[in-house]
Design a protein that fits this description.
The protein is of the alpha/beta class. It folds into two domains: 2-157 and 335-352, Rossmann fold; 170-332, Rossmann fold (3-Layer(aba) Sandwich). Helices cover 37% and strands 18% of the residues. It has helices at 16-28, 60-70, 86-96, 115-128, 170-175, 197-207, 241-249, 263-269, 302-314, 316-332, 336-352, and strands at residues 2-8, 32-38, 52-55, 74-78, 99-104, 131-134, 151-153, 183-188, 212-217, 233-236, 253-255, 274-277, 294-297. The protein has a seven-stranded parallel β-sheet with strand order 3-2-1-4-5-6-7, sandwiched between helices. It has a six-stranded parallel β-sheet with strand order 10-9-8-11-12-13, with helices on both faces. The radius of gyration is 21 Å and the shape is elongated.
Length: 353
């Protein structure tokens, strides 16, 4: 059985633990033994851990010692360029003839700092790596053609296998949060400027409806929600796990104008149509089919954003049709097996080289 180490930068986000559990079991059946190496688990984790794990300080010295003693066959790394141990570590793996596999976006999609310098650094990184695993097929455009022969795609998604839906109906469940509006638009996740929460709030005010609520859930470290208020605006601190999915399932439409991310996976799994704006570069935007399971409106067109929300809130048949399409999309293209197949083909590729 081949020994595979997955280097997870810093501490492991709680949402990745069920995914690592699933990937570990999947790969074990294919004779790959996965161990996740990190600095620990982020606070608030409620998930059981079934994969092999090693917690160490992530720096060049500790990684060198670990690799020298454990002698894994393959390293998969999820590590940003800002971590200074990355390039010495990749060179060290080359010297030991241990295969390395990059896992991520392909380039820095946020575009902060010098992109010319970052792209050059990524080129060196990809040159040193034996294979690349990207979150989505459309991200290949962010990688030079010379590296395309060693690209594999593992659709970025989440593992919902241990989720047991709430037994209460929507109205009863929402009353826990003092939400009494008949229909609700929800946005859940970290409240950040790049997510354009202000566009969502402006679109919501254009609806001008007393029967519709706006539910905003998540940490607000940037103070985005400071000026967002109203009788039908419900601001809730961060929640995780089944509680998060239960609240999403109790709403009617999910709207996130910018930086879609894994929010769309949560929304689609819970059967909510998704409304956003053009211009997002998130890998997970691949799941959104305009006019089928949600809407994509022109960038900064708040009136049309409001109109799309209005259409879905007014037309129950349309919303249910979108809901079925959303669930179908995430249980096929967004199934964990699609992610695992990407990992497996990349591992098999480097083993054959």
């Amino acid at each position: 059985m081949k020994k595979v180490f997955l280097i997870n930068q810093k501490k492991i986000p709680h949402y990745r633990i069920p995914a690592y559990n699933y990937i570990s079991e999947y790969l074990k059946k294919e004779d790959f033994l996965l161990t996740v190496v990190s600095e620990g688990i982020q606070d608030g984790n409620a998930h059981q851990i079934t994969y092999n794990e090693i917690h160490i300080p992530l720096n060049f010295a500790s990684l060198l010692k670990l690799i020298w003693e454990a002698k894994p066959d393959i390293i998969i790394y999820w590590v940003h360029l800002k971590h200074l141990y990355l390039f010495p570590f990749l060179i060290f793996l080359k010297l030991l003839r241990i295969k390395s596999i990059y896992w991520g976006h392909g380039t820095d999609l946020l575009g902060q700092g010098s992109m010319l310098l970052k792209n050059f650094a990524h080129d060196i990184e990809f040159l040193l790596s034996d294979a690349l695993i990207l979150y989505a097929d459309h991200l290949k455009i962010n990688v030079k053609g010379m590296f395309h022969s060693k690209i594999f795609v593992a659709n970025n998604t989440l593992n919902f296998n241990n989720y047991n839906p709430k037994s209460e109906d929507k109205r009863t469940y929402l009353s826990r949060y003092n939400i009494s509006t008949m229909k609700n638009v929800i946005c859940i996740g970290r409240m950040q400027k790049r997510k354009k929460i202000d566009h969502l709030y402006k679109a919501f005010t254009l609806l001008n409806r007393s029967d519709v609520g706006l539910i905003l859930v998540g940490p607000d470290n940037e103070g985005i929600l400071h000026d967002i208020k109203g009788d039908n605006v419900f601001i809730i601190p961060a929640i995780y796990g089944n509680e998060r999915l239960d609240l999403i399932s109790s709403a009617d439409v999910f709207c996130l104008p910018g930086a879609v991310g894994l929010s769309i996976v949560d929304a689609f799994y819970c059967g909510l149509p998704f409304v956003t704006e053009y211009g997002d570069v998130s890998p997970e935007i691949m799941y959104l089919k305009d006019g089928v399971n949600g809407y994509i409106v022109p960038k900064d067109n708040i009136q049309l954003l409001a109109d799309r929300l209005q259409a879905l809130l007014n037309n129950d048949e349309l919303r249910m049709r979108f809901s079925r399409a959303a669930k179908n999309e995430i249980t096929t293209n967004g199934h964990m097996d699609m992610m695992c197949k990407g990992f497996l083909t990349a591992l098999q590729f480097v083993c054959d080289r």
